[in-house]
Amino acid sequence: MNGSVIEELKTRKVFRAAAAYLLVAWLLLQVADVVVPALRLPDWTLTLILVLIALGFPLAVVLAWIYDLTPHGIRRQSSVAPTEEDGTSSRRRLDRGLLVLIGIAVAVLVVDRFLLQDVPTDSKSESVGGSGIVEQEAAAAPDASLLPARTRKPLEIEQNSIAVMPFQNLSGDPEQEFFSDGMTHDLITDLSRISGLLVVASSSVFTYKDRVPRPQQVAAELGVRFILEGSVRRAGQDIRINAQLVDTSTGRQLWAERYDGTMTDVFALQDEVARQIIGSLAPQLTRTEVDELKPLIETTPDAYDLLLQGLAHLRRWTPEDVLLARGFFLRTLELDPGYARAYANVALTYSVAIEYGWSAALEEDAANARRYATKALELDPNQSMVFGSLAMIYMNLGDLDNALASVDRALEIDPNYADGYTVGAHINTYAGNFEEAAEMINTATRLNPRYSFNEIQVMGNMDYLQGRYEQAAAHYEEVLMRNPSMSMGRKWLAATYAQLGREADAKWEVEETLMIMPDFSLAREAETIPIRRPEDLQNYIGGLRQAGFPE
């Protein structure tokens, strides 16, 4: 009896139809897995598709039992003539179709598993300033963490580590992107204050924006045990935050919550999400470390809105956007004159302009940077980015001792302040403290695995001042590959090429630098660059002179 049923199923091509259905369903799920997040469809869309596929399978089997595909079209099984049933043309077409589907399935699997996992992505910086400030090496050969991004290997997983992935904007309005991005940055800032937790920097996690990578891929690329994923929906004053914490070692969801509120209690919502995360990681953290979580200073909803819009411009890192950001921060202060965070960011816009040579009035901008930073410290002495901004100001004024003291204070407040370590490496390089610089840049790149050209610039400077010109050239070339308008990278590369005897390449970089900085001169550079040791300064200026820069 069983044999006759199986034979009948084979005759009616039910097995073949079931296999075809499952293959098509699998391909559909693969496509949906990519399309659903890209179109920002609701989280339950994939579940709905899976349920519909499951419900459709019995129907497909029944239809295969009743109907058959013949050279004359779809016919009922009972009406299929023996010659048609015994014919091979329709079977061949079906076999070819199945082979095509199997080939597509294999191709999708190979691309997904072996090709897409290793596609390199440039870490376009989310940080601001020559030293990598955001709101938020010895004579031996450099170790793996100091190599350019394309040569790096998967990181070792830190058990007490987390990456907060960019929250999706589900508001239906692209103009609200600044708000979902701002929520992500603020959660990272909240969590990074906990010394027992390694929190990956914003500029690394934002390389995943508008993508939904597998947890295991994030773990391999960022070296983290946990990831937080989420979305923000804002409609007028109403806010909905969806968040889920995932263990990358198993892919298992530890928890998922929805938080509803309004703009008036946005800070309480952020604090609730952060404390939920810490509560889930409590077995890995001590009570003292959990108590270190402090919410951001609150302000009015309108002031917070303006601040986030300013930060969105600040992170684009152009002279024009920095000025636009300053305008938003000053408008924030009009609404809330006591908002320390806004003062700190105004100071940052001035220090960035000084660092990158965008300032048309160096002394005036330095005075403004100090004034706003001082006011921010009066209102809130526990903001790491204020001390980071002060470190940049002191560095550009040549006061390296106070610059280093400011970095130390910033890292005391926020032990996960990746850009603070980058600033510290930059300052220590100028001071000739190369061992300390190497330690700091290694920490910076661990906290920020997909580090930007800022960190690579510092690595290049460390190599140049220690006479490792081949390594320095490789770093500066990587800087300019990522950011061709990086004038700092071009002038150091010109000096490096000159030291290597590559005169034509050096001349090219001189011409490119002077197009960006037409007023550049060796006299002004020697006066303004804060290189402490005379032999290091002579080495740098000598390379620039040999390259052909004007006196």
Q: What is the average of the pLDDT values?
A: 76
Gyration radius (Cα, Å) is 29 Å
CATH superfamily of the domain at 154-291: ABC-type transport auxiliary lipoprotein component
Number of E-state strands: 8
Quick one: biggest sheet? 6 strands, mixed
- Helical content stands at 55-70%
> What gap, in angstroms, lies between the N and C termini?
100 Å
Query: Which CATH C-level class of the domain at 154-291 is it?
Result: Alpha Beta
Assembly form of the protein: single chain
Strand composition percent: 5-15%
Q: In CATH terms, what is the fold-level topology of the domain at 154-291?
A: Rossmann fold
Overall structural class, as computed from helix and strand content, comes to: alpha/beta
- Report the principal-axis shape: globular
Total DSSP helices: 24
- The parts where pLDDT drops under 50 for at least 5 residues are 79-87, 112-152
Assign the CATH architecture of the domain at 154-291.
3-Layer(aba) Sandwich
Word description of this protein:
There is one protein chain. The chain is an alpha/beta fold and 551 residues long. Among the domains are: 2-118, no CATH class; 154-291, 3-Layer(aba) Sandwich (Rossmann fold). The protein has helices at residues 2-11, 14-38, 45-66, 82-86, 89-115, 177-192, 202-205, 215-222, 266-280, 287-291, 301-314, 319-335, 340-355, 362-379, 384-396, 400-413, 418-431, 434-447, 453-465, 469-482, 487-499, 503-516, 522-528, 534-547; strands spanning 67-70, 73-76, 158-164, 168-169, 198-199, 224-235, 238-247, 252-262. The strands form 2 sheets. Strands 3, 4, 5, 6, 7 and 8 form a 6-stranded mixed beta sheet that branches. Strands 1-2 form a two-stranded antiparallel sheet. β1 (67-70) and β2 form a beta hairpin. α16 (400-413) runs antiparallel to α17 (418-431) and α21 runs antiparallel to α22 (503-516).
